[in-house]
Specification:
Layout: E1 2-6, H1 10-18, E2 24-26, H2 29-35, H3 39-49, E3 54-57, H4 63-74, E4 80-85, H5 88-99, E5 104-109, H6 112-121, E6 125-128, H7 130-135, H8 140-153, E7 159-162, H9 168-177, E8 181-184, H10 186-193, H11 196-213
Parallel strand pairs: 1-2, 1-8, 2-3, 3-4, 4-5, 5-6, 6-7, 7-8
Helix pairs in contact: 1-3, 4-5, 6-8, 8-9
The structure holds erythose-4-phosphate.
Residues 6, 26, 28, 107, 127, 129, 131-132, 163-164, 183 line the site of erythose-4-phosphate.
Amino acid sequence: MRLFIDTANIEEIKAANDLGVIAGVTTNPSLIAREGRNFEEVVREICAIVDGPISAEVISTEAEGMLVEARQLAAIHPNIVIKIPMTGEGLKAVKVLAKEGIRTNVTLIFSASQALLAALAGATYVSPFVGRLDDISHDGIQLIADIAAIFDLHGLETEIIAASIRHPMHVVEAAKAGAHIATIPYGVLQQMLKHPLTDIGIQKFLADWQKVAGK
Ligand code: E4P
């Protein structure tokens, strides 16, 4: 199980990377827009911080346009992975990019059948959106388990990135369900770090030490 950081914010990416537990970064058009900066500039900065797969998403809806964007983005840095939406046009683009040796992350996956199609088209990664399914009373973690079972049974090498993660238990449950990666917002990474008993334990150790040290 690996962790990616799900943000385009440079300060968050630096802070997460400093912890030594982040293996990659995912962005999407909403996350990039939130930063209010030039897309390519942000992507270049991210590539200079994290040495791992960096997902950058196309905005075209036709395969031809996706391919033009994908080739431009892939030329920025060897770690760039092209995020492609899960549509028929997206699948066509994934097939061509796979032949060109350009890695893809098929995003907006909400069913096992979509994940299967993406894998058969040659996607490097699929991103099932756990939180957005839970938001509408579906079971996002069950989707991860279903995709993992299908990929495992049929020897499909596409890796599963659990996306749209809302809290630490999503990460734990996604890991148990067979996700290869969870991409997590910075806030969730902070929540994963914390436990009140850890803080209490540190205070007690220091207080006990002081009692002896003070003598
Ligand atoms: C990452 O690949 C996804 O774009 C992201 O996790 C979506 O998260 P959201 O549902 O919180 O917008």
